[in-house]
Amino acid sequence: MTIDLRPATPADVALLRHWDEQPHVIASDPNDDWNWEIELERTPEWREQLIAQIDYRPIGFIQIIDPAREDSHYWGNVTENLRAIDIWIGEESDLGKGYGTKMMQLALARCFADPLVMAVLIDPLASNTRAHRFYERLGFQFVEWRQFGEDECFVYRLNRVDWHGESAIAQEHKNFGTI
């Protein structure tokens, strides 16, 4: 099995819209409209939108942004040299198989490949205790409760010094493909 990440393109609109309609995706992100038709045409320097694949079969989506440069200022006034990640598995049948962990490890490796990046932020819903446990297992630390639009979220942060992926990256490449 090979897990890899490729850029999301306008050809992925139907797939992403389908995933957006899945109950487990709605439950984790109930109030966002991603405007796929518009956003997949844009390629701002501060964002990567990626499709995770297993042997070329799409299984999930990852967005990595520079929250200090992102144009909607979703994260508010944040310091430089951070990244923020959105991630989900598209089909419920792909949950619980370790794919999300592998996807997140690949995303973190991308973030920390830039030596200036000090930390990564995430914002799961406050009610999503399964996501909290997932991120905590990866080393993220709870920072604060915060309201983002209509959503009550927990903000978590993984500092570079707490990231254990650097030593595990070689093993990830060997077992699950390249970044």
In short:
This protein has 6 helices and 7 strands; from the N terminus they run E-H-H-H-E-E-E-H-E-H-E-E-H. The protein is an alpha+beta fold and 179 residues long.
What does this molecule look like?
The longest helix is centred in the middle third of the chain and has 14 residues, at 99-112. The protein has one domain (3-176): Aminopeptidase. Helices cover 30% and strands 28% of the residues. The chain has a 7-stranded mixed beta sheet with strand order 1-2-3-4-5-7-6, covered by helices on one side. It has helices at residues 13-20, 23-28, 36-39, 99-112, 129-137, 165-176, and strands at 3-7, 47-54, 57-65, 82-89, 119-122, 141-148, 151-159. Helix 4 (99-112) packs across helix 6 (165-176). The chain is α+β, with helices and mostly antiparallel strands. It is built from 6 helices and 7 strands; from the N terminus they run βαααβββαβαββα. The protein is globular.
* Oligomeric state, counting identical vs distinct chains: single chain
CATH hierarchy: architecture: 3-Layer(aba) Sandwich
| Shape estimate | globular
Task: Tell me the strand order in the biggest sheet.
Answer: 1-2-3-4-5-7-6
What is the C-alpha radius of gyration, as a whole number of Å?
15 Å
| Spatial separation of the terminal alpha carbons | 14 Å
> What's the CATH topology name?
Aminopeptidase
Helix/strand order, N-terminal first: EHHHEEEHEHEEH
Output the CATH class name: Alpha Beta
CATH superfamily: Gcn5-related N-acetyltransferase (GNAT)
Number of domains: 1
The unreliable regions are 166-179
Instruction: State the helicity in percent bands.
Output: 25-40%
Task: Provide the residue-averaged pLDDT.
Answer: 89
Helix/sheet category: alpha+beta
Domain N-acetyltransferase: 3-161
InterPro entries: Acyl_CoA_acyltransferase (IPR016181), GNAT_dom (IPR000182)
Protein name: GNAT family N-acetyltransferase
Pfam family, one: Acetyltransf_8
